[in-house]
# Entry
Amino acid sequence: LQRLSKRREEKGPAPGAARAFRELPGQRDMEMIREAAGALGLENPFFRPHEGIAGATTRIGNREVVNYGSYNYLGLNGDPRVIAAAKAAMDRHGVSASASRMVSGERPVHGELEAAIAAHYGVEAAIAFVSGHATNVTVLGHLMGPRDLIVHDAAIHNSCAEGARLSGARRIAFAHNDWRAAERELAAARRGARRALIVIEGHYSMDGDIPDLPRFVDLARKHDAWLMVDEAHGLGVVGATGQGIHEQWGVAAQDVDIWMGTLSKTLSGCGGYIAGNADLIAWLKHSAPGFVYSVGMAPALAAASLESLRILHAEPERVARLQANAALFLRLAKAAGLDTGTSAGLAIVPVIVGSSVGAARLSQALLEGGINVQPILFPAVPDSSARLRFFLSSEHDDAQIRATVAAVAAAIGGARPAELAT
Ligand code: PMP
# Structure
């Protein structure tokens, strides 16, 4: 043993192995970006530690700053009732579920959360996974196969794209929110496929815009396809009382075949869900690899999301405040001549800066001025659409929003209408 550990100490990683790690795809780009940022005097805007509870404000480097970087849409992460529910579950069950739910990891709160999610949509059943990202990867990867067809919005989240890739199905992306393009693709490709699935989001996270849901429901019916809607940013945000994209359009939730959502945003936990038909959910519970072969959700997180969902229903005024805040931000930004793309002004408002360096610079200057907003840079988006992405919450106030838009407009050199100053 001594000889072995000595050999390990002497060796370290083999030079060839270390070189191979350095040569992994993207490593050189990352290095070049780091060097260029350093030369321009830009700090790394990623992985900054926050202290305290990130809501309308957050604490970075010992300074309280106004925060537009968190998905805490309704201010429920940090709500004393949510924290109490999580603590009670932890006192009762400990921190971990300690096993897959199928084999000894099931706790009553898992079923209670799933029943509440199913009731939210008025559908037969729901299943909760430990991660939103993993939900899309495992469900799409498992549900669809090489003889199938997935037609998806070009702007769908990485997790859907990865799941679609894993499935081996034929994948066709249609131009963002263009249901006519989706129809053309389905008309051309549906016949050659065994099963077909349309994947859209209820509220797009990069642009803050929404799809024409009734059109997609019709398309799915007409072309014998399932419709899956990722509501990660829709639940608690879209629709008059935050029910989601179906409420916005007056569509029955049962008209969507597969509802997907996350627990990490409005529901202030961590995880993902699928809601819909009982046979689909039972099949996923017994066979989806990311469920069967993964630990059950931490009971405290399930309890936190269950309590958050209860509060979402009980206090729709939170949704009204969020939407009013986002609408105010969007109106002021537009009046200041900022490019907000196609944002619907429901919670997410991008300000397109037009270059990664410009967006990184602006984000840094705003942070120095007491405002935290994350830049979205190349390669996440094309350099020409590099942006700052503002996540509004129900807890921001008018003064914060007015000051923020004024600061952005002043930094970009846009107009500064009198309204902004008030
Ligand atoms: N879907 C969408 C549309 C998302 O934006 C995200 C993450 N922000 C996910 C799925 C993954 O969810 P989570 O971060 O909870 O894993």
Q: What stands out?
A: Residues 88 and 300 are 8 Å apart (CA to CA).
